[in-house]
Specification:
Number of strands: 17
Strand order of the largest sheet: 1-8-7-2-4
Radius of gyration: 27 Å
CATH class of the largest domain: Alpha Beta
Helix content: 25-40%
Strand content: 5-15%
Order of helices and strands: HHHHEEHEEEEHEHEHEHEHEEEEHEHEE
Largest sheet: 5 strands, parallel
CATH superfamily of the largest domain: Rhodanese-like domain
Amino acid sequence: MTDSYGFSATELRMPKAIIVMPILFAAMLSIILIGQVQAQSEQFCCDCPLKYTNAGTTVDDWFRLRDQYCDAYGNLKSTSTTGDSATRQAKTVKSMPYPRQELLTPVDSNLGKFVILDTREPGKYGSGHIAGARNLYWRDLQTDGSLDPARAESALRKLGIENSDSLLIYGEKRDDVSSVFWALSYLGHRDLSLLEGNLDSAQAAGVQMDRDIPIVKDSNYTIKIVPWLLVSANTLAGWLNQSNVHILDARDWVDYGRSKLTNAYPLDVELLYKDGKLSDAATLRDLFSRHGLDKNGTQLVYGTPQAYSLFYSLKLMGYNATLLEGDWWQETELVVSEIK
């Protein structure tokens, strides 16, 4: 049977079949995918990092999955909740400022308001530095690898540093620069900032370079130690027993697996950087959020020298960080090992 145009009934029904079959196929595929997502979320273990990292998943990937599948109490979320979380993450804006932006100074800023400190070794400082910079070699603040307050005070006085100076710190290696930031914070200096980038980026931005060594008079710089910024052997157990303290190991996963402090979580400092530069504020916010950090609590970081950079990044993001310097903690009874 044909219509007035000569098409059969079968031919007239063909377009409907062509339209309906892809719709049915898409619906079936959606059901399969939803089932896979639900199965994955139902199988995820909210407190088993080694189960996944031993299988090739990175620590940061595990924290990302935990944030997606688990709630704040370690229970699995519903499938609809995990979908909402993924949608929110996709809409993250990457242009937010750092909460404590004053701790990071762009190279194209007005550097004239600062007393500039070059933390490199004297030989490299002498071969060229930012004009007017004074050489505070990071090792000159230490004795046997740890901060020596008396030695640091003497070095600051010889450089003519005043307690009221706005100090801008730069150098060659990020951990060295960050160690000076932490040391000066612990010694009570309030007005501190790191130069964004390094000497090469400063030169590229047109910052004037020089080889002259500034002539300065000794000052009466006086340290005013902030005790809670350093975890000692006498205070470590007390810190670990506080419920609002988050213990962060800044070393890589291998070192963390060999030995760690009780209740410590790994936060490899390399995750803070991308292409050698500190990640933007939104990325750091998401990273710290995945690790369950709370600005109302305290973050105890250890694993120097990497921990110096983690301490600085936490401060830049507005967290209440403190630091354990050195590796003496490995000889205490507060150490556990993941190796069996």
